[in-house]
Amino acid sequence: MLVLSRKKNESIMIGDHIEVKILSVDGDQVKLGIVAPKSVTVHRSEVFEAIQAQNKEALSVAPSFLEQFKKK
């Protein structure tokens, strides 16, 4: 893990096209702004984990359900 220190209004670059800006610091809360191409998805980690869990659940469809679906 790379650890960097930044102050308000400073930023870091990830690759050539993603910039993470420090918008404000208030106590233990930091507000970030992320500038990235529209082709790059950006999610909070808890949202990303929920999406991953839903995707795994969708893949674990019972074979009997698929057979019923084919009959219709």
Automatic annotation (TrEMBL):
Compartment(s) where it occurs, according to its Swiss-Prot or TrEMBL record: Cytoplasm
The keyword Repressor belongs to this UniProt entry's keyword annotation: yes
Record key words, sorted: Bacterial flagellum biogenesis, Cytoplasm, Repressor, RNA-binding, Translation regulation
Keyword Repressor: yes
InterPro entries per the UniProt record, alphabetical: CsrA, CsrA_sf
HAMAP family reported in the protein's UniProt record: CsrA
Record function comment: A translational regulator that binds mRNA to regulate translation initiation and/or mRNA stability. Usually binds in the 5'-UTR at or near the Shine-Dalgarno sequence preventing ribosome-binding, thus repressing translation. Its main target seems to be the major flagellin gene, while its function is anatagonized by FliW.
Subunit relationships: Homodimer; the beta-strands of each monomer intercalate to form a hydrophobic core, while the alpha-helices form wings that extend away from the core.
PANTHER family: CARBON STORAGE REGULATOR
Family to which this protein belongs: Belongs to the CsrA/RsmA family.
Entry protein name: Translational regulator CsrA
Gene giving rise to this polypeptide: csrA
